[in-house]
Specification:
The protein has 464 residues and is mostly helical. The chain has helices spanning 10-28, 34-39, 46-57, 60-63, 66-73, 76-81, 83-103, 108-116, 118-151, 155-203, 206-213, 227-241, 245-252, 257-288, 297-300, 307-345, 351-372, 379-393, 395-403, 409-427, 439-456. The protein has one domain: Sodium/glucose cotransporter (Up-down Bundle). Helices cover 77% and strands 0% of the residues. It is a multi-pass membrane protein.
Length: 464
């Protein structure tokens, strides 16, 4: 089946965009200082916090990469397995959330500084910026897919429009405006997916017909992937989530530990429902559209469903993309402002100056994100790169702060450098030997270096 553009779907996207811009402007008027902008005044209740956790985590990485691309390219079981890292990550965050709130920091880099010193903060800030700009970039391309499906305009032009919208929404109100709009977007996500799943299965002729039209290996445990290759797709999201600054900032912005706990439970339940649903919809798309870009699988189903149902799903997809994009862009800009500008360039900057600089850095990093996406062939490839840069460069050092009192400055910094260098070498000059994702090597290297260097230098520094 060929994709036929349905311009009527564009009205749903326009309506969502107008709603988000209007709400963003409304909530931006409540921003009075940098804490309001970055942590929403530490006043998020359980419901809004649930929504913003869900909407931020489930972005274009799920509907263009992740579950969608895995279901389309390799099969339904690999897509289902993509939920496991998220579930594990949420459970770990549930345990350490009170300590995250107790730190009361704007950035993960600030947490690392307390344990490993000021150089670690600067290094972490750079690593986070590298990873988050990559994550923002494929949100922009995901929006390009949406406009291509609805209007027929090129993905490149649609990506430019997506970049402008993401940058604008992140700039006007920070987390104070992002969080409540995320909550609305989360509702749209759940509603859109719930309506779409049964509808697309009927249109595709039911499960038996879908199975008959997909490659036979799409029903095996790992599709065309070896087990080690499959593991290479599962680990990056786990190691990103375990120390994701975006999630740490949201947990720190809750009104209290009880609100945080309730929100994380709600987030867990929602992900258990949403992740397999995305995979099933994309799997049905594999039957209907056997020759499209894997990243378009879920969104392609919108053009074969009744306009209202397709419009709801496309609105949900837009919500996934926009909320994740502006959240990670805001978080990356926070690093530039507080870990680089405020730390080394203008140590005496006022709160107002820091707020203004954060907005400027949102724009600069947003433009950089748009440039970066042109260097990666697929959404899934840039997703794996960005997740691994963060997961190997940041996560082992962060988790050691919470779980290993003996870790020291030498071990922490060495681990961060080793994780990033291994990732970049594996991905760029070596070009992913054996078609294995770098996470399989970068994370073990980072952990081993952390342990060995800490033990070897334990007599040179005081333990925490």
């Amino acid at each position: 089946m060929e994709i036929t553009h349905n311009p009527n779907l564009l009205w749903f996207v326009i309506a969502y965009g107008i709603l988000m811009v209007g709400l963003g402007i409304y909530f931006s008027k409540k921003v009075s200082n940098s804490e309001d902008f970055i942590l929403a005044g530490k006043g998020l209740g359980a419901l809004v916090l649930t929504g913003t956790l869900l909407a931020t985590w489930t972005g274009s990485g799920s509907i263009s990469g992740g579950e969608t691309s895995m279901a389309y390219s390799y099969g339904i079981i690999p897509a289902f397995l993509m939920a496991i890292p998220t579930i594990i990550g949420i459970l770990v965050l549930y345990i350490i959330a009170p300590r995250i709130r107790a730190f009361g920091k704007y950035t993960v880099s600030s947490i690392l500084e307390e344990k490993y010193g000021s150089f670690a903060r600067m290094l972490a800030g750079i690593i986070i910026i590298l990873a988050y700009v990559g994550i923002v970039s494929y949100q922009m391309k995901g929006f390009g897919f949406i406009l291509n499906l609805t209007t027929g305009i090129s993905v490149e032009t649609g990506t430019i429009i997506g970049a402008a919208l993401i940058i604008f929404l992140a700039t006007i109100g920070g987390l104070r405006s992002v969080a409540p709009t995320d909550a609305i977007s989360a509702i749209l996500m759940v509603l859109g997916l719930a309506i779409t799943l049964p509808t697309i299965f009927v249109i595709a002729g039911g499960w038996d017909n879908i199975v008959a039209n997909v490659p036979s290996d799409h029903l095996t445990f790992s599709g065309q992937l070896s087990n080690i290759q499959l593991l290479g797709y599962l680990l990056p999201s786990l190691f990103l989530l375990l120390a994701d600054q975006n999630m740490y900032q949201r947990l720190a912005s809750s009104s209290g530990d009880q609100s945080s706990k309730k929100a994380q439970i709600g987030w867990l339940v929602a992900m258990i429902l949403i992740s397999p649903t995305i995979g099933l919809i994309a799997f049905a798309a594999r039957s209907l559209f056997p020759n499209i870009d894997p990243g378009m699988a879920l969104m392609a189903t919108t053009v074969v469903m009744p306009t209202f149902v397709g419009g709801i799903l496309l609105t949900a997809a837009t919500a996934f993309i926009i909320t994740t994009g502006n959240s990670y862009l805001l978080s990356a800009a926070t690093n530039v402002t507080y870990d680089i500008f405020g730390k080394y360039i203008n140590k005496d900057a006022t709160d107002r100056q820091l707020l203004v600089m954060t907005k400027w850095f949102i724009v600069i990093l947003g433009v950089l994100a748009y440039i970066i996406i042109s260097f990666f062939p697929t959404v899934l490839s840039v997703q794996m790169y960005a997740y691994t840069v963060y997961g190997a460069g940041i996560t082992p050092a962060v988790l050691a702060v919470f779980f290993w009192k003996r870790v020291n400055i030498y071990g922490g910094i060495s681990s961060m450098i080793a994780g990033v260098v291994t990732t970049l070498v594996w991905e760029i000059p070596l070009s992913k030997p054996f078609d294995l994702n770098s996470v399989l090597f970068a994370v073990p290297v980072a952990v081993i270096v952390l342990i060995i260097v800490t033990l070897a230098t334990s007599n040179k520094t005081k333990t925490a």
